[in-house]
Specification:
14 strands; six-stranded mixed β-sheet; homodimer; 335 residues
């Protein structure tokens, strides 16, 4: 049962403590050469993954992660009540075709890179609200499909600025259940869209940092918790510049979490020798780091509880061309 | 309180009967010349709506519908717990920028033209699950932005096939509340993605018809109701060809609802003199017909209860180019 949420609060509380009973992280070659290599369940060296296009490879990677998450939970597709998924491609086609092939009642989401956490938050409400016993959540991204759609064709070999982040190739999926063994989720804080006027699409971490800060502060206010309550605050894909900005903004608001603030985009690549500039980004970034590294850290007891903060930049190439700024959003889930 | 949903069912039941306390439909010029003209709350003659691009006009139309739905419900934005929205544009930018300007915690959705019903279904679960008192749901589409993104630039003046449907210019928004006066929603059936191999993007109604049929049949099975239980079955945007196909498919499955099956895409334009070929389509189609005409029919007592079936075609221009077929989805809500 949910606790009544007061007017103005953005945080919901899951009385029944839904459990992450399985998770799968499938990553690309470069991700598999990084510091988190050992935490992925599979590393795919071929960017085409035996398919004819990068887009089909991305879709297949998501489908494999979803199917494996079901198997790992000792379930069949027919046991799952709902599938929640989305991705970065126009019309979230990776998720749509995966839903077709997996055959579970499907709710499509778009939260840009915050999609895994948006899905986890909604899944928590569907289970805690007694509408589902099992919900499958997943998302994926692919370096080459994102470059093609959002930036420049990979074949151009365009020089990138130092703030640019590299879209992670990878897919993450998990099964959230009413009961079982695994890390539990207890709260979710749904973010508002925040836009401080950033217009540089090569510095998206900085565009998303204010949204992450607002969501973390609102979460602590809503729950009445002190900032030292959590072992870690893990943002999705702010990257090196965005993480620093978020840390500074928190300090200005009187909360120093700089020691505890980590970012999936910083964790996934080695800063010194992987040449990924600002770090990782994309739906797959928070997904593979959460479904691989972070949930393992919780299972191993290295992290007792953390606030995962999925971050998303909500522009499109067309809105940027039409002079719009980059709005950001962040959804937080307590794991 | 939700009733426990059995394994394999796709229908959730809202014990608390959430109420649609306000709704707003804003439509474009051609829609305003059609048979439902009197049911729209506003008709906008200028396709640019005083903005510099069609995309900005679409976004502004959605924002106006959302803001007016809040006002009509005698609420302020801070009273609304969540906003659920999506649209057809890449990265759902109309919804994102609307969420930025409205300032309500935001969950972005992508269900193509089924978005209003996807949002209504999730909103029902969030309220019935005790996570929210008020949820704002809305979506929009625009003829010219959809042509530009999905088909041919309007300036080309390309000849259209007779099965082509015309994307509706319009925005619909509604506020779903825990209590109040207005039509209530009692059940939602979440669709699976269905794909029978249709590849003609100029015949999307036929691609979506099988999904609508599956969802209606599953709904009747899950609820144990006979097909004559409802006064009407209203699909989102199958159009003339898709509606006929759906009706035939239902008959083959032993259920004749041909007299009761209507489609928002057929209702919105006059077949004889508006030259819209297969009828209307787009997120805005189901949205303005539901938020205008249908809810008025319920309020006037002309319809006692109907099953609204939002239908979506889940391809993208890129997936079509890469040889994929068109998967369809349908979510049903009892109003």
């Amino acid at each position: 049962m949910a606790a009544p949420k007061k007017n103005g609060q953005q945080t919901v509380w899951f009385g029944s403590q839904p459990v992450i009973v399985s998770s799968v992280a499938i990553a690309g070659k470069k991700e598999g050469e990084g510091p988190l290599a050992e935490t992925f369940h599979k590393v795919v060296d071929d960017p085409y993954y035996n398919e004819k296009s990068w887009e089909k490879a991305e879709q297949y990677m998501l489908e494999e992660a979803m199917q494996n998450a079901i198997v790992k939970a000792n379930l069949k597709a027919k046991d799952i009540d709902f599938m929640l998924a989305g991705d970065l491609l126009n019309q979230i086609v990776s998720a749509n075709y995966t839903a077709r092939n997996v055959g579970i009642p499907f709710l499509g989401l778009y939260g840009a890179c915050s999609t895994l956490y948006e899905g986890l938050a909604i899944a928590g409400m569907l289970i805690d609200g007694d509408f589902a016993d099992y919900v499958l959540v997943g998302t994926a991204s692919h370096y080459s499909t994102a470059e093609r759609q959002y930036r420049n064709p990979v074949e151009h070999g365009s020089q990138k600025t130092m703030t640019t982040q590299r879209t992670v190739t990878g897919a993450g999926a998990l099964v959230l259940a009413r009961s079982g063994v695994g890390p539990v989720i207890t709260h979710a804080t749904i973010g508002k869209v925040v836009d401080l006027g950033e217009t540089d699409v090569n510095n998206m971490g900085s565009a998303m940092a204010p949204a992450a800060v607002e969501t973390i502060i609102k979460h602590l206010e809503d729950t009445g918790r002190q900032s030292d309550y959590y072992d870690a605050y893990i943002t999705g894909d702010l990257g090196r510049y965005g993480r620093k900005l978020a840390s500074n903004m928190m300090q200005k608001r009187g909360l120093d979490i700089s020691e505890k603030l980590e970012d999936c985009g910083c964790l996934i690549f080695n800063e010194d020798d992987q040449d990924t500039h600002g770090g990782g980004s994309g739906c797959g970034c928070a997904a593979v780091v959460t479904c691989g590294h972070l949930l393992k850290e919780v299972e191993n007891g290295n992290i007792k509880r953390f606030l995962g903060v999925g971050t998303g930049a909500l522009m499109s190439p067309l809105s940027t061309q039409q002079g719009e700024t980059i709005p950001g959003i962040a959804h937080a889930v307590v794991i």
